[in-house]
Amino acid sequence: MLMTKFSLLSPRWRKVWADIWGNKLRTLLVVLSIAVGVFSVGMVYSSYLMFQRDLANSWGSAAPASASLYADPFDEELVDSVRSLRGVSEAEGRRNVDLRVRTSDNEWKQMFLTAIPDYSKQKVNIVKAQSGAWPPGDGDVLLERSSLEELGIKTGESIIVETPAGKKRSLKVTGVVYDPSQIPSLFSGRSYGYINMDTLEKLDEPRKLDQVNFVVQPGVLQGKDTAPIEAIGRRAWSKLEQGDTTVFWLQVNKPGEHQMQSAINALIMLLAVLGILSLFLSTFLLVNTVSAILTQQTRQIGIMKAIGGQRGQILRMYLTLVGAYGILSLLFAAPLGAVAASAVTGFMAQVFNFNSGGIELPLQVFILEAAVAIIIPLAASLWPIWYGTGVTVREAVSSYGIEGLAGSGRIDRLLENLLSRFQRISRPERLSVRNTFRRKGRLLLTMLTLTIAGTVFMAVFSVRASLYSTLDQALDYFQYDISVGFTQNYRASRIEQEVMKIPGVKAAESWGMTSGRILRDERKESEDEASKNVFILAPPVDTKMINPKIIDGRWLVSEDESALVINTEILKDSPHLKVGETVVIKTGSRKIKFTIVGIAQSLMTGPIVYAPYEWATSAIQQSGRARTVQIVTQSVDPKEQTALGRQLEEHLKKNNLRIQNVDITWEQKERIRSQFDILTTFLLIMAVLLAVVGALGLTGTMSINVLERTREIGVMRAIGASSLVISKVFILEALSIGMLSGLIGMILALPAAFLLSYQVGMLFLQTPLTFSFSILGVGIWLMLSALLSVLASLLPARNAARLSVREVLSYE
Amino acid sequence: MIGKWFSRLIAVDLPQPKPDAPAVSLKSVRKVYTTGAGEFEALKGINLEVANGEFAAVVGKSGSGKSTLINMITGIDRPTTGELWVAGTPVHTLNENQIAVWRGRTVGVVFQFFQLLPTLTVLENVMLPMDFCNIYDYSERPERALTLLDLVGVKDQADKLPANLSGGQQQRVAIARSLANDPPLLVADEPTGNLDSRTAAAMIDLFSELALGGKTILMVTHDKDLAQRCHRIVTVTEGQIAASGDAERDAYD
To answer: Residue A12: its chain B contacts at CB < 8 A?
Structure first.
C-alpha cells in the first residue's frame, strides 16, 4: 500500500504538493493575487478585442457614410451625379422629416423619420431589419431599436406624429430595425423611424430627397484626415447647386470613427489604465507574497540543504510551486475574465447601440493571460527564491523564529528618536511601531502596493468628482426651464404675449435664431473652407435665461453693434478665431461681418455664437421678430414643467404659431447626465476593482506577517501578555501601514488625478474637465485601508493568541 | 528543458576523496566572526583528528566554540583559515553548492530540535535526502527508508506527520534520515537536549550500535553521563581543544 502511494511523486515534489494543498489559506491568497492581475489584463484585452469585433460587425458592416450633404428637396438624378464623381465609391439619397411624436406617456418629443427609396438596395448607412415587417409598407413605420424605450411603443401599435405644417397623422408601427450609423436615442434624445417614399405624401411632404450620404473610395483616404473627404464633399456640393438645389450643410465624418468615438475612446483608455495598473499591482503583490513564503520556509530550506539538497534542486522546487500557483490562477481567472469582458462589452453594446457578439476567449488573450499568470510570477519570484535558497544552513537553522538585533540604519535611528520623544507610548505600542519597520524590504513592498492602489483609487474618485463638477458647470448654463422653437419668425411681442397667458409661466424672453457657417473673409473662395453649421442665437444682451461662462473677452453689452461671442465648440472647427478679430458668417444667402468680443466655455451645447438681439435681427431683416422663446416656470417640479411645456405647445398651436421643437431643460439635463453616468459608473467599477486588489495585498501581507511571528506571540504570552494586548500590537502595526500608505497615496493622487482628468476630458469632451479633488475618495480610502488592515491582521493574530505557549514555542 | 538548463548551470563536480584518510582531520582551523562589537575569535587554531569508527563526544561550556567546531565539520559554516578534511575531502576548498552535495553523501546531521519537515510524512522525510542526492534507485527508496525506520524502531509511524510523534520518536526519525544515504560520518548537535533521560540513554545506545557498524559519530552534549559512554571525549574551551588532563574539570564545572 505504501509503495503505490509514494511511487507517484518523490518526497521533494510531495513537499511542493503539500505546500500547495496543505496550506489552503495561503494558496488561496497567492492564487487570488495572481488571479487579480490575470483577470484584469484578460478582461481589458478581451473587452477591447470583442469591442473591435462588435464595432466592425455592427457599425463597420453598415457601410458608414464618409460624409453627408443636407439640402432642399431634390430628385434622384442628382444622387447619380454625386455617385459618378471621381473618388466616390457609393452614394445614396434619403429623405429626412423632422417632426414631433407623441410618446406612450402622452408627451411630445422630437422624431426623425427617414424615407429610403429602396430598402433592398441600400448601399450607405445600411439600416437592417430586426423584427416584424420589412420593408415598411404605405403608412407604416419601422422604429429604430434604441428608440423603443424612449417612445414606450411596441410593434403593432400606432404613433401619432405632427407634421411641420401642424397636421396630426397616425402611422402604424409594423417592425423594428437597427440603424448602426445613427447616434443612439439615449444620446440624441430623439426617436428614429423609417418609412417608404409613398408615406412621405401622407405627411404632406413631396416625394423628394434632401440628403446624400456617400462613401469615398479607400484609395482617396489619407489615414484619419478628413481633408480628402471634404474636397470631394465640396465637389458634390457644387454638383447639387448646379442642379438648382440649395445645400445647407456638409457633414464630414472622420474615417473609421463612430459617431460616439470620443466616449468610446475615453472608456477604452480607462480600461487600459485599469488593466496596466492591476498588472502592476499584482506583480508587487506577488513579489511580496513569494518573499513572505520563502521567509516562512527559511528553516525548511536550511534543513533541506543540511541533508544534501542543492541550490538548483531547491530552486526548482520553489519555482515549480510558483508555477503551480500561476496555473491555478490561470484556470480560475481566464474564464472569469472572459465572462467579465462579455459583460463589459454587453454594457457598451447597449449604450452605443451595437450588437454584442457574445462571449469569446481569443487565443491571443489566453496567451497573454498565460504569460501574466506564469511568466510574470516566475520572473517576480526569481530574485526572492534565488536569495532565499542562498542562505547558509547555519543562518537558516539557527533562526529561532524571533529575529534578533535592532536595526542601525538612518530610518531606525529616526524612529528611535521619535519614540523616545513620546514617553507615554506603552511598551507593546512601541513594539508594534518597531515591528512595522523591522522588515524594511517587506514594508516597502506592502507600502508600494497599497500606495499605488490608494493613489489610483483616489485619483479615480477625483476624475469622477471632476466629471460631476464639469457637469454642474455645464448645466449651470441653462437658467430657463423650457425652450420653444418655431418654424419661422414671429413678432416677439406676439410670442411673449401668448406665452404669458399660460398660468405657471414666470418669465419669457424671445430670441432671434438662425444658423450659418463661419467664413475667413468675404471672398467667394472662402466659402469652400467654411466651417460646419453653427447656431446663431440673438438674445437680449442682459438675458437672464442663460449663464455662459466667459473664458476670454467679455459678454455682450447694449452698445454693441456687430459684436459676437463665440463658444469653445466653435474653436474646435475654427481654431484660428481670437477675441478682437473680425469674422464673416454666411446665413442663407447673406454674409454678415462680426467682431469677436468674447469666448464662452461650452459643454455639450453644440457650436453656438451669440449676437445682440437688436442688431442681429435687423441684420437679417427680422427686426422685432423672434424664432425661439425661453421660459422660466413658477414651479421647480420637473413633472409640472413637462406638463406646462405640453400646455404651451397646445396653446401656441391653437394660436397659429408653428412649433419646431419644445425642449424641457431638465430632460435635456438628464440626457447629458446619462452620458456622464456611463463614464462615472465605469470609474466606480474601476475603483472597486482596485480596492479589491489593494485589500488582497494588505490581507496577504498582514496574515503572513502574523503567521511568521507566531513564536514571538508565544513569548509575549509566556511573559504575561493578554490576547487583547497581542491583538493590539498587530492592529496598531496594520493601522500604521494602512494610514502611512494612505497619506503618501493622497499626495501622489493629486497629480495623478489631474493627469487622468485631463485625459478623460480631452477624449470625452475635447476639453479638459473642471478639476475637482475628491475628499470623499480620500476619506473612503483611508477608512477602507484602516478597516482592511485591522481585519487582515485581527484574524491571524487572534488565532495565534489562542495557541498555548507550549504549542507556539514548538511551532515550526 | 528549463530543468536541464538549471542542472547544467549548477552542475557539481566533487574532488576525488583521498583514500585511507581519517574520518575527520582539522589543521590549525580558525574562525573569526565580525560582529557589531568588533571581531570575535570563536576557534583559535584547532588541530583535531577523529579516526574511522570512533564515537566521540564533544563537550564544553556555552560559548566555548563547540557548536562552531561542529558546524565546521558538517560544512554548515566555513573556517576563516586552516584546513578541514572530512573522509579524505578538503571541505575548505568546496563552494556552497559542492558542500551541499558532498554533505548529502558524506555527513548525516542530527539537530537538537529534530528539524523534520512538517508537511511531509515520516517516511517521506527519510526518503528526502535520497531524493536530493539521487543515490538509490527510485523504486528502492521507500523500502530502504522503511528499513532505516525499522532500525531506529519507529517503522510503525511511517505514515504519520512529524507533529503526531513524541520528541523521542521524532529524534529517531531524524537519525533514520541522517542515515538515508549511508554516510560514513554522523554529526549530532545535542541530540538528547530535548529528550528525557531514559529516551536519551536509548538514543546513545542506538549511536553506539551504529558506531559498531562502522560509522564515525561526533556528538555534542552537555550531559556528563552520556559523554562518559562514548569512546572519547573532546573538550573545547575558549576556542581551543583542552589538554586531556584539564578536560574533565573544564567541561563540567
So the answer is: 128, 131-132
